[in-house]
Amino acid sequence: MTEPATIAGLDPITLGDALRVAGSADFARWEDQIRRTGGCSNPVHLTGWTLTKDRTTGETLHHYSTEKEPGGRLRIACGNRRASRCPSCARTYAGDTYHLIRAGLAGDDRRDIPATVREHPRVFATFTAPSFGPVHNRPDSGRCRCGIRHSDDDPALGTPLDPDSYDYAGAVLFNNHAGQLWQRFTVRLRREIAARAGLTQRELREVCRISYGKVAEFQRRGAIHFHAVVRLDGAGGPEDSPPSWARVELLEDAIRRAAEHAYTTVTVPASGDQPARALRWGTQLDIRPVRAFGDGSELTEQAVAAYVAKYATKAAETTGTLDRRIGELAELDRHDVPDHTRRLIRACRDLDRLYPDRRLWAWAHMLGFRGHFSTKSRRYSTTLGALRQARADYRAAEQAQVLGLDDIEPDTVLVLADWTYAGHGHSPGESALAATIARDLQLNRDTAREALADMEGAAA
To answer: How far is CA 134 from CA 166, 318, 348, in A?
Structure first.
């Protein structure tokens, strides 16, 4: 049971509510529900029942109802990927992303991805946005153009040296079209690889497949950029060896040329006071081979997977914007949004009437970006859906064992259910207690991970 002493320091209203919850007769069951959600900060509340019957005899094998649950409700995890909204569910999402990316690098027998995929050419590439005006930074020389040596946590980093001349419109239009720019890049990449192999694109499809997994990240200046694992496979995907001519060097050269090619450009027409624009990737393109674990390389499979997973739970709120849609500009004052981010949001509002089909105001909280934060090609590896289903199947099997139903064949039972949405979230005291539970669970995970790492190190 969570000790009330662990939530000391709360304001009187929250503390009083927490003590009320902790002192209730059904607190143990409430705590069990929250632990099962992983300490979710905004659980979904359901009311209803399930009934499991034997298909042949009609015998009731199990009946569950929320009538006897705390508040007459069952609480389930919200599943939000954003760490700013629910750290607990975001950790689960990051873990799934880690396994998805790593499976495409190291293989996973449980998901029919052979370990031989490690022998395929693969690189980790970072695609950045172009310049929209000079900003405060930390160059190799150590001194910014403004003459100051900024610390790593200086809030001035990423903000323009001259806000009045900074191209805010160009910045949000780039964010808004970044997904299309990536799509054009992937098309051009296939052409570049085919040309280097001396094949037509149709012939290339018969011997080689390009697979990728990527994640978006916002730079401090508020511009989106992509981190991507790009891999060459045989025609069948990860289980097929790529042709002999497929080498890391060929892949690196093809990526660089595809990113720089004129085809990899998105044209935005002129409208109102805005000129026509040709949006392209920035000149800073970083491409590095991914090495197998244990070869002494810093950029290992585990490091890449962890890096991608880290940014899969973040969004534009890292720049100081809101993590939800903005109703009116007055909200920016109430939440003390930084001036640079505020100007980007205003640019979204102003451009919305000029390019209504781009829905810039609807995505102003994302500084114009409207794509998915993490995506992959069809045959890169497993899917998030498959990972979630595996987790659901495991929990279902665990529950069946507890109920003594694990020996019954699934096709011999009939499950009836009726669920109704009944709200979401916590009271102030419940929120404080849930945060304590989430910290305890995270501490347990960290301890287990460190112990496993120690065991692997000793074995090596």
So the answer is: 8, 20, 21
Measured in degrees and rounded to the nearest 5, phi and psi for residue 144 equal -70, 165
Share of the chain above pLDDT 90, in %: 70
Nearest of 261, 227, 260, 249 to residue 376 by alpha carbon: 227
The total number of residues shown for the chain amounts to 460
Please write down the long-range contacts of 163-169, taking CB distance under 8 Å and 24 or more positions apart. 163/339, 163/340, 163/343, 165/133, 166/132, 166/133, 166/135, 166/343, 167/132, 167/133, 168/132, 168/343, 168/344, 168/346, 168/347, 169/274, 169/347, 169/350, 169/351
N-terminal to C-terminal alpha carbon distance within the chain: 39
DSSP letter, residue 276: P
Model confidence over 131-171: pLDDT tens digits?
Answer: 999 999 998 888 898 989 999 889 999 999 999 999 999 99
Cα–Cα dist 393/413, whole Å: 16
E strands present in 29-139:
44-54, 60-65, 74-76, 122-127
Each domain of the chain, given as residue ranges in start order, spans 1-41+426-460, 87-132+167-382
The token pair at 94 is 């990051």
H/E segment holding residue 285: strand 285-289
Alpha carbons 132 and 136: distance in angstroms, whole number: 13
Give the pLDDT confidence score for residue 58 in this predicted structure. Answer: 87
Q: Quote the CA–CA distance of 91 and 81 in Å, as a whole number.
A: 8
From CA 413, how far away is CA 50, in angstroms rounded?
A: 13
Residue 443: both structure tokens together: 């501490």
Distance CA 62, CA 240 (A): 46
Q: What confidence score (pLDDT) does residue 454 get?
A: 73
Residue 297, token pair as written in the block: 């390389």
Evaluate whether 119 touches 106 at the Cβ level (below 8 Å).
Answer: no
The amino acid sitting at 53 is K
- Residues 356-374, buried b or exposed e (16+ Cβ, 10 A)? eebebbebbbbbbbebebb
Whether 196 and 210 have beta carbons less than 8 Å apart is answered as no
1: pLDDT strictly greater than 50? no
- Which residue would you say has higher pLDDT here, 111 or 340? 340
- pLDDT for 2: 46
Of 26, 28, 38, 36, which is closest to residue 2 (Cα–Cα)?
Answer: 28
* Between 82 and 271, residue with greater pLDDT: 271
- List beta partners, residue 279: 266
Q: Could you please report the per-residue DSSP string of 10-39?
A: --HHHHHHHHHHHTSTTHHHHHHHHHHTTS
Is-contact 365 324, C-beta < 8 A? yes
Give residue 272's region: left, alpha or beta (phi > 0; psi -120 to 50): left
